[in-house]
């Protein structure tokens, strides 16, 4: 997505740092980073297009776990946000106000083996915070709102839409070309 022409306007304020440099600046307390999990799921799914081996959900889950552990080991605390779903009991109205423990124990979450459910259970096992966006906002907008209100220090996103939703700081996962 993104907004046409936004980056040239924001470029003067851009500051490119390695995650390690940013982590050192926040050495006393891990930097809290809000992440729209659907972006990560989409990225993991897209990377499977040219691969035809094994169980796709297992491969995607392993990829998501690897990314999550890299962020944690770099000194950041990820806070994942799932999109609200009115048709999904574990990610719908009840989940918005429920605690993580309640969501993990819910029969819908335990019985459903979809990637989203498996990922939510994995995050709980890792003690990584996550929640469901409010019914009237996307996960990306919710991440920006968390940043705007000081509940997280930054938003991790691949586009600039988070700034339109009020984010103050955006981190981007830059890939080294090999």
TrEMBL record:
Boundaries of every XPG N-terminal domain copy: 1-113
Pfam families: XPG_I (PF00867), XPG_N (PF00752)
Gene3D superfamilies referenced in this protein's UniProt entry, alphabetically: 5'-nuclease
Region forming the signal peptide: none
Annotated coiled-coil segments of the chain: none
GO molecular-function terms, A-Z: 5'-flap endonuclease activity
One Gene Ontology biological process: DNA damage response
Domain of life: Eukaryota
Annotated PANTHER family: FI23547P1, FLAP ENDONUCLEASE FAMILY MEMBER
Protein name according to UniProt: PIN domain-like protein
């Amino acid at each position: 997505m993104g907004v046409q022409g936004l980056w040239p306007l924001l470029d003067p304020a851009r500051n490119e740092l390695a995650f390690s440099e940013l982590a050192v600046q926040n050495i006393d307390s891990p930097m809290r980073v809000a992440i729209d999990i659907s972006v990560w799921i989409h990225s993991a799914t897209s990377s499977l297009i040219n691969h035809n081996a094994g169980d796709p959900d297992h491969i995607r889950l392993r990829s998501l776990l690897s990314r999550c552990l890299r962020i944690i080991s770099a000194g950041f605390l990820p806070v994942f946000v799932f999109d609200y779903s009115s048709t999904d009991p574990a990610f719908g109205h009840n989940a918005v106000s429920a605690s993580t423990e309640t969501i993990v124990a819910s029969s819908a979450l335990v019985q459903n083996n979809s990637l989203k459910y498996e990922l939510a259970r994995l995050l709980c096992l890792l003690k990584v915070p996550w929640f469901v966006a409010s019914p009237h906002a996307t996960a990306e907008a919710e991440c920006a709102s968390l940043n705007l209100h000081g509940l997280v220090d930054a938003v991790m996103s691949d586009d600039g839409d988070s700034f339109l939703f009020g984010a103050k700081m955006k981190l981007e996962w830059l890939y080294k070309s090999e």
